Amino acid sequence: MSQGIRGRMRDDAGVAMITVLGVIAVITVLAVGSFAIAQQALLDSKRVEDETMAFRAAVSGLDTEMATFTDSSLSDTYPKAGSTEDGTFEITIEDIGGDQYRLVSTGTGRDGSIERVAQEFYYMNLWKMNFAGAGLDSLVSGANKFTGSSNVVGPFYMRNSFTLSASMYVAEGPLFVKDGDCSYLQGKFGLSGEPVDLFCDGDTADLEAAAAKSGGTKVFIGKISRAVPDISIPAITQTDLESWASRAVAESVDNNMGSLSRGTVVNMETTGGTPTSYATMFQPTYTRASADSTNPNYKYIGVVDAGGPQIASSGEGTHGLTIGLATPSFGFWGSTNTTNGVTTNASGAVLAGYPVGLYANNIHDDFAWDAARKILFVEGTVFIDGPFTLDTSIEYIGNGTIVANGAITVNGLMRPAGTAPQSREREWALGLVSPTDIVFTANTPEGGGVSPNETDVDTIRDTKADVSGAFYAGESVTIPEKLFMSGSVITNKIFGGRNNLWLVTNPYLPDYLPESLPGSGGGLMMPSLWTRY
Q1: Of residues 293 and 394, more confidently modeled
Q2: Average pLDDT in the 238-263 region?
């Protein structure tokens, strides 16, 4: 019996030893595994940290470039390099067409790891587009949508819904529709080989279906983005008005045609730099009339005292100006060079009563009116402390802006003198600026009444416009039906006629944009697709 007991004890000890050894083996395996896992986790953490540093460097470089991007950036030399505490970055830019660009930022972490991110965006000068979009009640063509045969060529931004209907025509784009849908009844959207990019944060299924069903003949949509930038027009402040008024006063006595940025062509505004000499400097032989006699600074209509121009609150000016058939000629201009498409009479002589030889060809005062030919000469900045009315059809010569501290009314056609496209060749552009409203009323259009070739954007742009220039209104712009407008309209609301209204941008306008236009200092950046390469 004792031998049996001792045998069982020996057997139990053997089992215990085996058990202990097994447990030790398992613990050893677990310890080694845990150490390996911890080691790998540490290495992964280090790698992820390095990648995160490279990523942060890339993003930091991209954000910096986006925040500082201006018109001049388009002509900068790329790549651009920089560094952060996380590493270094290198920025490149790609022009992907249609005012679209892609910035690519390559970040390198401190250990040499690499990450790459990119941002696509539209970058357009505000004065390269038509814009109606500050309020939710932005109206186009007399309703909350385009109606009739309203037509748009070039970039356009609007709020509320867009409906392509009747014989409407939309070309080039892009089209930005904020807080609304895009739908289709009939009409043309884009051209074959030239689709229109669409930014719409509402329903676009109807228009997309039309593109699929049109058989490639009526609706051509390019990129579709649901991200529509929330853009507001630059507001006119009282400080802006005061600055423009002061500029008009200063340019009245500087003896240069327009602002100094246009060159130093002497046009003899004063003798001795004193404003009192403008109207009488040629006495007794000649009298130089000004548009208004309230002060001797001929480019400023309003009150000037020892403290400078005294202007009313925004939109409340009372010193208005009207130019019409009954308005006598004012200012001086020289013989007009007939080779540029503008003529005076058959021999190219100056208007009778003006001093022959006083001015050289094409030299003129900054603000002058030839009543016989109905030509308005404008250079630099003209300031009117009140409403302004053009009460007849005119042609204009020069590059300048008329700022009115009140409403502006244009009761006729208004375009550069000479043959189309005269403004592009001579860099003539007239800007009209009002903190309130601009109203066009012409009922005898010549360009918009004729339907341009809808398959050729260049033909449309070369059509002689009824109204041409750069127009800013803080509240609204009213456009009658059948009017063909070339240039840019920037406002909160566009009220338009129902039929055959044309809004056609001039892509060359930013190259010779007149001074004193809100938002003329730079472009609009509208980000679209962000990607991690």
Answers
A1: 394
A2: 86
